[in-house]
From TrEMBL:
It comes from Cohaesibacter gelatinilyticus. This is Dephospho-CoA kinase. PROSITE patterns: DPCK. Pathway: Cofactor biosynthesis; coenzyme A biosynthesis; CoA from (R)-pantothenate: step 5/5. It catalyses: 3'-dephospho-CoA + ATP = ADP + CoA + H(+). The keyword Transmembrane does not apply. One of its GO terms (cellular component) is cytoplasm. Its EC number is 2.7.1.24. Keywords: ATP-binding, Coenzyme A biosynthesis, Cytoplasm, Kinase, Nucleotide-binding, Transferase. Pfam families: CoaE (PF01121). GO terms for molecular function: ATP binding; dephospho-CoA kinase activity. It comes from the Bacteria. It is found in: Cytoplasm.
Amino acid sequence: MIKIGLTGSIGMGKSTTGQMFVELGCPLHDADASVHRLYKGKAAPLIEATFPGTTNQDGVNRHALAKVVLNDDAAMKKLESIIHPLVHEEEQTFFERAVKDGAECVVLDIPLLFETNATARCDVIVVVSAPEDIQRERVLARPGMSVEKFEAIKARQMPDAEKRKRADYVIETGNGMIEAKEQVARIVEELKHNKKD
């Protein structure tokens, strides 16, 4: 089974690209979606114990938590030490299910793939990228996003140019969906072909 690591900085079109892989028969594990689930369940009491007042009856209050951790490296590291092992557990369950289902390839959508040294868990790294002006426009159009928040998130992410250098494949999303889909299809075809060889 080919493990494709999918990553890209905020606003590059990674989630949309991930769905393109799914359409071509590659099951996807989305680390962000996993975190959302964990924030509503298993992780909430652990986060409340470490950062009191950041949860409510629905689980973790992301807004309250962001205020505590966003510009504090030590707090961010504490949060990551709680959440990353739980995400890995979910990922492992996903792998086991994909193997049972006979999947030829799986996609691991990991926003901080390079930053968290997750490359060892992947056979191939695909980076999703777009010009900086398009990235900024996409991100600032999101509800609740500010320039300050965008810059803080960007500061925690490896620069796009460095990610591109480290990638096995780069998918450009700045020229629209059709072109991005064609790039995804070529990658899947090539990986399956190489696997047969």
